[in-house]
Amino acid sequence: MSTTDALNICVYGSRLLGPTGGPIIEYLEYLGDLMVNASETTFRLGINGEWYEVSREVSTNQTLLEFLRYQANLTGTKEGCAEGDCGACTVVILEPCMASKKLKIRAVNSCLLLLPMLHGKHVITVEGLANAGLHPVQEAVVANLGSQCGYCTPGVVMSLFEAYFRTDLSSEWQLDDQMCGNLCRCTGYRPIRDSLKLVAGAASSEELVKLSACYCFPEEVSRVEFSDVGGNYFASPSDLPELLELRAKHLDALLIAGGTDLSLRITKLNEVLPKLISLENVASLRGVCVEEDSVWVGASTSLADLESELGAISPLFGRMLRYFGARQIKHRGTIGGNLCNASPIGDLPPVLLALDAQLVLVSVGGERRVFANDFFEGYRKTALRADEVLAGIEFKLPSGLTREGAYKVSRRRELDISVVAAAFAVELDDSGVITRARLAYGGVAATPVRAVHTENYLVGNLWSEETFTGALKHLRHEFKPLSDHRGSQWFRDELVCNLLFGFYHEADQGSMKRLEVEHSSTLCLGGGWT
Amino acid sequence: MSEMSPSQRSAKHESAGRHVSGKALYIDDFHRMPGLLHGVPCVSTVAAGRIKSIDISEAVNAPGVVRVALAKDIPGDNCAAPIAQDEPLMADSEILGLGQTIALVIAKDPGLARDAVTKIKVDYVEEEAIPTIQDAIAKGSFQGTEHKIKRGDVDVAFSNADLVVEGEVFTGGQDHFYLETQCAQAMPTDDDGILVQASTQHPSEAQAKVAEVLGIGRHQVVVECPRMGGAFGGKETQAGPLAQMAALGVFLCGKPVRVRYNRDQDMLHTGKRHPWFSRYKAGFSKEGKLLGVQIEGFSNGGWSLDLSESIMQRYLFHLDNAYYIENLDFVGKITKTTVPSNTAFRGFGGPQGVVVIESILNHGAEALGLDPAKVRKNNFYGDAPKNRTPYDQEVVWEDNRVHRIYDELMESTHYFERRMVIESENEKNPFVKRGIAFQPVKFGISFTAGFLNQAGALVLIYADGTVQLNHGGTEMGQGLHTKMIAVCSHELGVLPGAVRIMKTATDKVPNTSATAASSGSDLNGQAVQHACRQLKQRLRPLAAELLGVMVEEADQLAFMGGYVFDPSQKKRIPFSDLVQQAYMRQISLSSTGFYRTPNIHYDSVRGVGKPFHYFAYGGAVVEVEVSALTGEYRLKKVDILHDVGNSLVPSIDIGQVEGGFVQGFGWLTMEKLIYDENGLLLTHAPSTYKIPAFGDTPRHFKVALLERAGQEGVIHRSKAVGEPPFMLAVGVVTSLRHAIRQFSSEPLVVNLDLPATPEEVLKAIYRQQGRL
What we know:
By secondary structure, chain A is of the alpha+beta class. Chain A has helices spanning 3-15, 64-71, 136-143, 153-164, 172-179, 190-199, 205-214, 240-249, 264-267, 303-310, 315-322, 327-332, 335-340, 348-354, 372-375, 452-458, 465-475, 489-508; strands at residues 24-26, 43-47, 50-54, 90-97, 102-109, 122-124, 224-227, 233-236, 254-256, 275-278, 288-291, 294-298, 358-363, 366-371, 376-378, 381-382, 389-396, 402-409, 420-428, 434-442, 449-450.
């Protein structure tokens, strides 16, 4: 296929690109003198109201956290782990959504953000909140004794600051979701929850206006391509053709989307990533489009956007994304990243396997489609060629006669890697006979994988406890999972079967619910408890 | 009058405004001054053996490297151990454990130092690792002394018992996971001294260890601690080596040096809560009365003793928890292994002891088919003769609050009613079962090494009536400074805003004890009070004169709210006027204060004495919901009633109770340290080591402080609070057992390993169902 076709797909994707996921306000005023596209070889970012042009002296591998602490002397932002698992480094990123002219306010982990990725964005740190007195979110923490040692507190405050502008935090599970990326070792969280309840959605419309007016954003964010003085290359193309050209030209470069996984090689393994191509400003790779039962998801769509777009209409996505990661991670992590790093314990691959999703791979030479089932070729190995980019994912939402469920078991409910993840889609005909079954698992093999033998067994049988009990006999022998520090082989074996058995019972009770209640398990089989 | 609580008012944390605005500085937040160097240790990659050779030539020439220090570069004693002389700061030839420091790279940038560390080549003669307690027992590898406490005759008790149970309890280690990792910075002073700024619970020990390692007097060393980003015991002894390394860097390079561990280094190189293995045998009457208990416990001390002896003692002291045991035989041994030396952690051996006796009671209750809560109540300490602890300290009946806590909590939480409802509802639901449990705690308060029970303070009044307050305690988030301000402002009768707390520094208060053992406010509070009272004594005659009161009545003047009142409270003068006059009259306006806890003694050979000034009590009712198919569960409801005496600052104390409970819950349920066969920690970051997160805290989480609970002989009749609530989380295990037991129609004794991860819970359910 031609390049034009590839572009059309992405235009299709971007046409409906919606301002989603975060708290969004009218992007009111643009103070037009900010020429971010003055030069392609430097980049600009804002910090607490001031815009900075960053010189080539600063390494392309420099994290925002280290830049804040040791270059900008903004030491309020703390390092607790340098791997996005504690939230002490949380800052808020302000970014205009070009399509909607609205402002996104997103809490993110500054330890995982490389500085050039922030080109055209504005960072607010804990030092940027207080004016004359404390900000209401800060006052809430003080009043509730939400700080003890105070070290997690700046990060907590910034997550609360995001919540302050969110108008959709109505139920308890959303409060958990908003704050689960901020570990606190002192308080036991009760006072932080009380603080959150006080401030969630409390921002007045004037404050929104003021916030957006303060940070004069560029009308559009220019492309960037440069090498730092150490010779490390960084490019941030502004559209897809440019991306594909760069991809073809620099086959040894790494693509970086959200950076929630790739940055760990810098912060944890002390590696240097000498060539990076950022997907940050390729707008056409972002967005979700639903037309009747057909869904297109741009590969750079953040997990938070994905959750807000699909969570309510697809139980598979809703369930799986609920415990995918912290708010900060979901804001940065992308669906494409979760697929392309091909981790055997990625949580979205089972969902896409269950949906028979197609991945659209594009290059300057054209595009091709690959079923999710064929995409994962081996341990951390995919069908993506060196000159290709994952543009997006296509799938159909299951029909009303399909029973679906997605499950994830981890040692800790929130912000943990799965021991076993599973996604099931079982289609019935009018008489209750199974016509199609997709049973997909993560954490049980070198790749995300389907239980094909068991699927075959199910097809043609009646939806019944007897059928599923019979299926378990096949399922038990389908995988040979490993023992590791997350769980033993025994545990994984049992979960593989028990999740399917539980799915049968849950789906049998009615349509799959979102995990909004105070549930004790990934399986919602409570029944009558108050 | 004078013993009234200073405020009994809730207060904000004194640093809260700085915390939330990012202005509160921790060591690594200090501006990187020009010339600042950074030290990163190079550590042993083998667990045991000898160093054959070290080649630092490549590291020395690496970019940014200023110096690579080895053991031979240490001018004084190469010793980092707090008590025994068994832990060198840097290994010279013998390797005692994995992760032991061998060299220190000092470079212009921490990243460059980290790079250079990888260029150091060490050749070892490797010997076999001894990572676990079981390995050490098999090899007979022990350290320190064997500790024993005995009373009566357990064999006779067992032969008279209706039920004799035997079992084993293993509790894993726990990483402190203070959010601020270990950090220290040192700089030279112009008089050949050294200033160390460190995140440490024990500035005086850091001072002493720095002086020793440099071979200089302690007067040449000042250690300051502004605040810590959490500590929990992990910065008691283990902060010392970082201070020593930074100081050594200053000695060798003449420049300021900062040493900071990142999260991986911190978790890999520093000690943790001691893993513990206990074997028990216990005899019960058929009513669930404990007749005799025999326990043999082994701790994993790691490669050196550190504080393991005292921790072993506290384990033995808490094998009774709140229960009278007529016949007992307790033995404790410290194994010597090759993992980083394990250390203090909130509870200090107490939790490991409490878990054992609670396991015994659960075992007995389940075997006898009794409500575990009633079994606990039936074994509480009571009137004589059931008021003697195993170490023969009297549990004073008037001070024994556990009965009241039980009665009040069981009533307020409707425990018995809920238990009945839970059990009948459970029958209807095959996939989900709930459990409920009551958990008491009795915790001994004092350092068990008696001499440590002392504290000092230094109070400075300025002529405008404002006050600087120094004391020997450190602030790690627990609110000690908030309490000390409350004590000081109450005592001097000034507003809290007139009192400024100063960072803890060894040049203000010398020879302090660690801020540990929950004792911070007990000890330092008395010292602050003592200092303030001396100052007031000096001011009273002058105040009497200024108020026109007979000097004989000077003792009846009241210092309150920034004024001094005459006995009738009709006349008053501002405190600031009084001190201004005092200054003019050449009256000293500064004073030290001192306190030592009276009548503390313990004979460790005979296993008898009075190691504790008093006991703190608490109780919790915990409800859980467990999934049959995944072993996942959730805390549904937690109600706590805790005894803090007359709380100095209730809002601070509630925070300690909540935080302690959740930390204990983490230890018992999800915090799992996993090692390879060589003893290398595999879970050394929050991606793999899971502490409780926001959603793990129960929505229903209610903490109340016991009323009418004043404790004689303690500052304002308050009580220590830091550690005791940690052990209330053992109730989670008991309630899990209650739920798990009901997955079978013929319930067995529950066999649940700790930490109770979903995997362990699922195993226990399968065992209960006879499937495993």
